[in-house]
Amino acid sequence: MSLLTTLNEDMKQAMRAKDKESLQVIRMLKASIQNEQIKKGQELDDEEELTVLSREMKQRRDSLTEFEKADRTDLADKVKKEIVIVEKYLPAQLSEAEIRAIVQEAITKTGATSPKEFGKVMGAVMPKVKGKADGNQVNAIVKELLQ
């Protein structure tokens, strides 16, 4: 079942349950996917849908960080709820240990030995963890292991 079909079914359930928060987020996700389809001029494959979902998740995490810096707990709470809803549609997230193993493998494969080769390692790691790990977390682990 495609992601759009899943979103449509969940949207109907949210309407029946009068769950306005879920409904709003699901509509936003659906609109993002449809906009991407229009931009491409064709249906999205699973990888492209995952890219759209990852972008939506990143936007919410960035917003959460900014709201917490500004001490806007009302907005931060709203974004936290949105993150929980978006997470339902993303694949299971990798643990820190799993990310470390992938990063270590990439460092070994690329032969990276210094922080100067950060880009090379990130280029090898990101396709493997796409949608399964937060880029900021991966970034921090790569920096730490290249020290």
Q: Quickly name the level 1 CATH class of the largest domain.
A: Mainly Alpha
For the record, the count of structural domains works out to 2
Q: Give the low-pLDDT segments.
A: none
CATH architecture of the largest domain: Orthogonal Bundle
Beta-strand proportion:
under 5%
Task: Explain the layout of strands and helices.
Elements: H1 3-17, H2 20-40, H3 46-69, H4 73-87, H5 96-110, H6 118-129, H7 135-146
Protein name: Glutamyl-tRNA(Gln) amidotransferase subunit E
Keywords: Transferase
GO molecular function: carbon-nitrogen ligase activity, with glutamine as amido-N-donor; transferase activity
How does this structure look, described?
- With 147 residues, the protein is an all-alpha fold.
- It folds into two domains: 3-87, Hypothetical Protein Yqey, Chain: A, domain1; 96-146, Arc Repressor Mutant, subunit A, CATH 1.10.10.410.
- Helix content is 78%, strand content 0%.
- Pfam families: YqeY (PF09424).
- It comes from Enterococcus hermanniensis.
- This is Glutamyl-tRNA(Gln) amidotransferase subunit E.
- One of its GO terms (molecular function) is transferase activity.
- Keywords: Transferase.
